Amino acid sequence: MTPATAPRPTTASERLHGLDALRGIAALAVVIMHAHVLMPEFPDVFPRGYLAVDFFFMLSGYVMARTYEPRLRAGMSGLRFFAARYKRLWPTMALGGVLFLPFLAEGTRGQDLVLWQVALVNLLLLPSPWSGNYFALNVPAWSIFFELVANAAHALLWRVRTVFIAMLAAISFAWLVSAALVHGHLDIGSRNGDMGEGLARVATAYALGVVIWRLWGERKVPSVAGIFALIAMPLWFAIPDRSDGYNWLHDVIFVGLLCVPILIGGIALRGGHRISAALGELSFPLYAIHYPLLYWFRAAGAPPVIAIAGCVAGAAMVVICAAVWKRHRRRA
């Protein structure tokens, strides 16, 4: 199957509210995971919350194929596609970076660095070659960088036949399994030297997302699949760390076996539009600014639960401000 014969959405403007809900749940799991990392007194509720990134990558591949491949067929240039993605992602990520500036010295863990260089490179959504983390200014931005890499590849290769995209996913998955065996888990890709691991994660999941859109589209499945999706993902994130050396296997099973049915189950969720839409709207701002906000709340001595609630409130403020700005621009 080629992009030209890929299934089209039943309603071009229809939002997939089930995927919005899953996106919001995954973002909240990341916040709760990082709350434990930065405030160890808070329980480790989602020790595998880092797997939310793989779901985000797969979801992005699906949504980008659904939204942009018809436009690319209609004449949209690859450069315009990539520019639209960068324009969509950069402002909120930059806000997260600016919020973290007072903590950058702490975030670089005492390394002897020229901090303004790290900040400038990271603000452009580029990895820093100097710091221990590629994005010391806002650690979660590493996944946004790799998503943009996938978007650029998609813009160039969208005409490639689906069978070759599936082969890419399989090869990348083999690479990912190898990396998981070496590291003992899939919490990889954000640290300097992890470029290959990050590429393996995004190539596997993003390519699978494109394949799901082209082969599955928006076919309806029983509603029980949607319930499965809502339950399975947070339950898997909550599986505790093992001491027998098999953490990597849990992570690989999620990416290789569970992520696809979770995504398809999310497509089946059609109810709860208001709640799902709210979760979807909050998800990206929450992911983009939660890490610096957790630092601010920790510095203020706030309890972890208040810090998590504050992150959600901060994301809601970003959504409201963006909506007001868009309304103002329309009127202007």
Automatic annotation (TrEMBL):
Keywords for the protein's UniProt record, in alphabetical order: Acyltransferase, Membrane, Transferase, Transmembrane, Transmembrane helix
Uppermost EC category: transferase
Span of domain Acyltransferase: 17-323
Enzyme Commission number(s) of this protein: 2.3.-.-
GO MF entries: acyltransferase activity
Domain of life the protein comes from: Bacteria
Spans traversing the lipid bilayer: 21-39, 45-65, 86-105, 164-186, 198-216, 223-240, 252-270, 282-299, 305-325
Protein name as annotated: Acyltransferase
Organism of derivation: Novosphingobium aquae
